[in-house]
Amino acid sequence: MEYLASTILLIGIFVILAASYNLIIGYGGLNTVAHPIFFALGAYTSGLLGAATGLPAVVCVLAGVAVAMAASFVLAITTLRISGDYLLIASLGFQLGLLQLVNNVEFTGGPAGLSSIPDTFAGPGRGAIYVVICTAAAALVVWAIWRTMNGPFGRAVRAMRDDELACAALGRSLIGMKIRIFALGCGAAGLAGGIYAYYFQYISPEQFQVAQSAEILTMVVLGGIGTTLGPIVGALVLVVLPQAINFLHLPNGLVGPAQGIIFTALVILFLFLRPGGLVGTAGAGAAH
Amino acid sequence: MIEPAILLQILWTGIAMSSYFVLLTVAFALTLKVEKLWNFAQAGLMGVAFFAMFYAMNALALPTWAGIAIGLGATIAAAVALEVWAIGVLRARNSGGLTFFIFTLVFSQFAAYALTILFGTEPETIYPSVMSPVRILGGVAVSDWDLLAVATTLALMAALWAFLRFTRDGQFMIAVSDNAKLAEIYGISAKRAYVISGVIAAIFLTAGIFLYGTRAGVTPDVPLVLVLTAVIGALLGGIGRIFAAGVAAVSLGLLQSFSILFIPSKWQALLLYGVLFGALILFPRGLPAWRIWRLRRRLGPATPPAAPEPLTEAGE
Amino acid sequence: MDPILRIDDLCKAFGGIVVADHVALSIAPGEILGLIGPNGAGKTSLFNLISGVVAPDSGKIHLEGREIDGLKLHDRARAGVARTWQHMRLFRTMTVLENMLVGPRGYPGESLLASVLGTGRVRRAETDACDRAMSILDRMGLAATAEHIVVDLPFGQQKLIGLARALMNDGRLLLLDEPMAGVEGSNYLTMQRVVHDEAAAGRAICVVEHNVGFIKDLCTTAVFMAQGRILQRGTVEELTHSRELTELYFGTAEAH
Amino acid sequence: MSERQSNNGSAFGRRKALALPFAALAARSGRAVAQAKEPFRFGCLMPTTGLEAGYGLDFVKTFEMATKDINDHGGVNGHPLEMVVLDTQAKPELAIPAAQKLIDVDKVPLIVTAWSSVVKALGPVMNRGRTLQLNMGANSPDIANLGDFTYSTFPLADVDVTALANYCHTKMGKRRAAVLYINNDTGIGGAKLFRDTFTKAGGEIVAFEAYDPKATDFTGLLLKVRVANPDMVHMHSLAELPQVIAQMRQLGMTQQITSYSVGYNPKILAQLGAAAEGLIVTSLAPTSTANPNVVKLLDLWKQVGRAPNGLPYLQYAWDTTLVTAQVYGWLDQQNMPLTGENCRKALLAIKTFDLPMTGKLAVTDDHKVQKPVYLYVVKNQQFTLLETIA
Q: Do residue D14 and residue D150 come from a single domain?
């Protein structure tokens, strides 16, 4: 069932995105909205490389991870100077600016998107293979983040989120930690991008806009920010819910808006009924 | 190729066209300042305002003043309801900033879907025609709409300035925005200040979307696009500086209009985001003049803590 | 005996407001130096200059003979500058023990890779740090609070934990910003005892306090600061009996 | 011109008789009511929310009208035709899972789609899912190269923009053209086509400027164009077209303006009033004056209570429903199961479809569609047929 496969794949992709975003915004307290751009960099790098060189998919995806990590360095450095709401908006400028670049240069396909990504694992087992790969990748990312955040490094990161000054005065290098969190989180987003590009074989700049920032953020907050399970649950709910609503037999002319109303109403309901997220108890640890 | 008349024309039309952008930016900046709230729900309120006016003036064939009155009434009611039943509840729970962010955003999406069901998705304008009579003044084309837009914006800005400067409620709002808890200790009702700022924002939003909707087609999804642009203006102006946000909104519009003479137009948006990113890196707390002034205010022992902030801003 | 901390000719001004005006100061091992003076005298600013929160305009800071004024905040902590904060600045979402474990200066677990892989070295360091944290907490009678979220504890205990966390750094210099303010009863006595013990162990301790009573209970020597300048240095007794200083400060302070 | 027009008129008159072959099939099967047999379903992926929903919802309504019309006339060999609609918001990332649901869960063998980015994103999905995609409204030239399972019932951009650019140069004698376009897939593709065709015909492009899809002030852009001194301006815009025209006219620029099929919209006349005079737009389908069948569609829309958006597109929506019905009918007659592969076979076997709203459709191996192009000019606040380019 390709449908089931693609749904599971999307869940996996968004679990990676939400978990890695949670690492940055939830544990690290670094208010950025630019996460989709690293997803995009991973997707575009691996897609373009795959289309142009025919290198093995693994190599192209890893190159995507590397590019996403390298780009994250720029954002990590900006946190030296700016934080809080200002960081939020600087990251927005970073995201939209880079997207505009992708949009305007020719070799990415521009707004028309990139559709020449090679087909891998062609054949009836394709969906299943991708499900296995993506699930494994998601598990690896979640495990790595869980491991990190429950070890000494994670403790220092949470300390930094709670009080940067006190943390630094205890001998922790803030910028060092931020660079590493960004590298890990954005690298994971790049990995998600690579898998996404190879599976769907089509990417375009509009898929990585602010709307997606909002979606990943909603997954994290709805699930429970700063928790291990929260982003996973959030991604699951936000991917499955619209699909489930698709199974309701609504009048044709109302399909979109009615689904939208049901979906947004449920999200609002969750926000009010579970203020600390579906998982976890309090939003006290949240950024801001 | 660049004649003075062309520059003047770009300047004038740029100012006129950024009028609604200024109003929407100021509305966003006001709630950001007073309520410390990234109120994306303003997109939903804009939708309510526009379709209330559109319905009153087209389906009910009411005159313009009645349409605007109905639009204002509906928007203010919606703003107050939102404040009392949703945002107030979240605030009482000490919800994190991100929860507000998401709630207001999702609310606006909800409103867009609801308006889609009620009014469809065709781009509608308040009047059937978007044209307005033009006169040529000193080689510059000036339309009636331009004049109306600039006059409305100036009048509302002046009124807001006077309100914040001279009325008790206005000064209470400033006090609450400085420190809500401290203001409460002095017997100022933060709740009242929040509601009033919500009402003022609603008035600005209605005026803004009226100007937009007499000029271009509005669908239920347009307000969300508009509010995102307003956010950029509010931030470039510097969080907490309402009038500077308005100036930033105009400047952004003019920057884009003028830069087209020098760089290919498709790189305009990149320029905008580049400016946004670069300006924040260079001046992490807003532009330098304000920064020095702020620092002096924070450290200066002689400055009274509750100096009316907008007064200084208006002077800049 | 060489002083642990030596400051020479330190200057700092914020947009016309002078917080350090040619400050020279040294603290010997085992010394508990009180820093007193009116509000805005530059006491906390001096702490910030020493610990590296702000950079000086000019002047030198030596720690155990090593020049540290060029170092960043976290590098100074690693060099052995431990400090507490007037408003404690505890990590509010974390437990007492977790707060403590952020304290040690060199920590192998800080490496991301090591943290993910959980190597033996990391595990050993973690066990050692835990043991040390528990023994410090035990000394303060706080061992039972180790698993509590730190902000759930009473104010006095939070103040002690602020000190305990700084002790995890194990630096030779300890800067205490108003450690006694708001601390009462047994916590007060514990604070006093621990500070004296640490001095006896050879640390140089500097204490900012407003209340002269606390200074008398804690310190051996004191300096008086006003408008960023050190006006006088002597024993606490000497300073309290100086007429000039009494007029400037103690006259009001002793009234309550 | 008048000769061509009358030729066309008669051509449509002739086609009318052939317009409803499925009705004949239904009659042969001996059942008048199409409820007794198992329904034949097809998928429909359209933006029913979001910025593009203005068109998307009207497409869906038209598909419904056409489906109902077919079922009222006995369905497909007595099988009622059923449509399953899902929302795409014109976004690929939503369209892909939606398409997969239609393929795997609803088991439809054929899906009608529109919007270039969606059609292109679905290309690989369709190839893998072996399900037929019928593009009825997207015109990106890349669509011809998406593989065996994507066909268009709608001519790609090269057809109308090429015809328009050539007409401007040869028939209208325009030599200096400025091109303004929205900086997205539609705008860039169309603008480049216009530029290349116009230059090839011997004209000069004096300004070639994109604007941001969110832009609302076009003054700087227009003044730059004015300085370049063109004798015509082609605007490859979307919903903001009336604003660009309004601002251009208010700046006192009187050059000839052309646009493509998006400009063929009654709302533009209301919004621009006299400023719309002289505007030339294209349409890929004949109007009701040229083709009486369109009157029926307009009558159905009168019951909705408003003028539809993008009438020519709706004509394609209607006709695409008929293509679907004919494909299903052919398979049913051959006792072949309704699968994507068989649908493709049927499409290629039938090859030529005589359609009531848009004329003849010939399915070719290059996946392109050739159609006559209708040029309209706004005269006395009316779209008036200027030329038909076959």
A: yes
